[in-house]
Design a protein that fits this description.
Radius of gyration: 22 Å
Shape: globular
CATH superfamily of the largest domain: Type I PLP-dependent aspartate aminotransferase-like (Major domain)
Distance between the termini: 28 Å
Structural class: alpha/beta
CATH architecture of the largest domain: 3-Layer(aba) Sandwich
CATH topology of the largest domain: Aspartate Aminotransferase, domain 2
Strand order of the largest sheet: 4-10-9-8-7-5-6
CATH class of the largest domain: Alpha Beta
């Protein structure tokens, strides 16, 4: 099982004109590769696991046009509504006007721009760590960090619902991989207790889990890793901008300082990229050894400029975070009033799963909601474990109470219409 992967599980949509969905055995004789792949695609369709893209026209905002149809978006990770903020867009435009679009090379060759450096310094100051390093994507950050820091003879102890990029990076490192049942502190403790003193180990976890919306017990994990002489690596992409008094994420909420903090620019900051924060030694080592950073073209300077503006807004406009949390509580209260099954959490986050279970039914519900004008992603295996298909509803500071109430009514009615047989 590959748990916690944040993939697009959109409901099937018609193929674009001129691009019909491929069918096994169609047309001229298949190549050996196509002959191998086509039956697997057919199997995915038969099991309601086939994925299709939807096309967005215009702004990626709360109100948007998807496959030519206006709808309200309740499946994006734009928690603070910054992806379409005109100030963020203007910062990107200025950077393009000043320096063009591409960075033209990797950061160690010709691609390290003043905008990259400024963002790294401002983010490190915000998060309270000595240094930070900007990656092209969050996945590149996770892969680069884990492959650089771990190798044969080392041990990774990881939550089973970690994001797919954490799983892939840990396995690619060739360290021994110990998977712990979700949020099972006794499992972590047991795994750490079996370590030989000579072996280096790292506990790896999401801060906020991307498909469930719950928060890792970081203080307990920090205590366990310290006692065992291990390192704590936290991916908090869904906590940044959302949790904590200043929006620094689950590490601030839970007053925990991991050895390695990984964050993303594509959620609350509304941009793109990954960022790693830690000690001077850590960042210098990653510059020498993180292959996904060394051998990738640096992100466009305009992305770093936009992220700087998003970070400035995050720091100076706490009312956005307050509005987001008010929207989350509005959804939770409304869901309970309507008898909808949503998980109870000690701390509310913008990720609110509605558990369905059956793969075909979750996609039927997603399609029905889209028909009613609401875009809500249906999430199926392998993104989540088998039997746990769900509607993944995400809230933003840009949503209004009336829109949330309308979604809840549509969700209640759709569940009634598509009740299990």
């Amino acid at each position: 099982m590959v748990g916690g992967a944040e993939e697009s599980d959109c409901a099937p949509s018609p193929a674009p004109a001129g691009h019909p969905l491929p069918q096994a055995g169609e047309g001229k004789k298949q190549s050996p590769l196509d002959a191998r792949l086509a039956p697997q695609l057919d199997s995915l369709r038969e099991r309601s696991l086939y994925r299709s893209r939807r096309t967005v026209s215009g702004h990626h905002a709360v109100q948007m046009v998807v496959d030519g149809k206006p709808c309200l978006n309740f499946c994006a990770n734009d928690y603070l509504g910054l992806a379409t903020d005109p100030r963020v867009a203007e910062a990107a435009k200025r950077a393009i006007s000043n320096g063009g679009v591409g960075s033209t090379g990797s950061a160690l060759i010709s691609g390290y721009d003043a905008e990259h450096r400024a963002f790294e310094e401002e983010y490190a100051d915000f998060i309270g760590r000595p240094r930070a390093l900007l990656f092209s994507t969050g996945t590149a950050a996770n892969m680069g960090v884990l492959k650089a820091l771990l190798g044969r003879g080392d041990v990774v102890i990881a939550d089973e619902l970690n994001h797919a990029s954490l799983i892939d990076g840990a396995r690619a490192s060739q360290a021994e991989y110990l998977r712990v049942p979700h949020a099972d502190l006794a499992g972590y403790e047991s795994a750490l207790a079996t370590l030989e003193p000579s072996r280096f180990a790292a506990v790896v976890t999401d801060g906020v889990f991307s498909m469930d919306g719950d928060i890792a017990d970081l203080p307990s994990l920090a205590r366990l890793t310290r006692a065992a002489g291990a390192a704590l690596i936290v991916d908090d992409v869904h906590g940044l901008g959302v949790l904590g008094e200043r929006g620094r994420g689950s590490i601030e909420l839970l007053d925990t300082e991991p050895d390695v903090l990984i964050n993303g620019l594509g959620k609350a900051l509304g941009c793109a990229g990954g960022i790693v924060a830690g000690s001077e030694t850590l960042i210098e080592f990653l510059i020498q050894r993180a292959r996904s950073w060394i051998f990738s073209t640096a992100p466009p300077p305009a992305i770093a400029a936009a992220a700087r503006e998003s970070l400035r807004i995050l720091r100076t406009e706490p009312e956005r975070r307050a509005k987001l949390l008010a929207n989350v509580h509005r959804f939770i209260a409304g869901a309970r009033e309507r008898g909808l099954a949503i998980p109870e959490r000690p701390v509310a986050t913008p990720i609110q799963p509605v558990m369905v279970g059956d793969d075909a039914r979750v996609m039927a519900l997603s399609n029905e909601l889209m028909r009613r004008g609401f875009w809500v992603a249906g999430i199926r295996p392998p993104t989540v474990p088998r039997g746990t298909a769900r509607l993944r509803i995400t809230l933003s500071a840009a949503h209004e109470f009336g829109q949330i109430d309308a979604l809840l009514d549509a969700l209640h009615d759709s569940l009634a219409v598509l009740a299990p047989a």
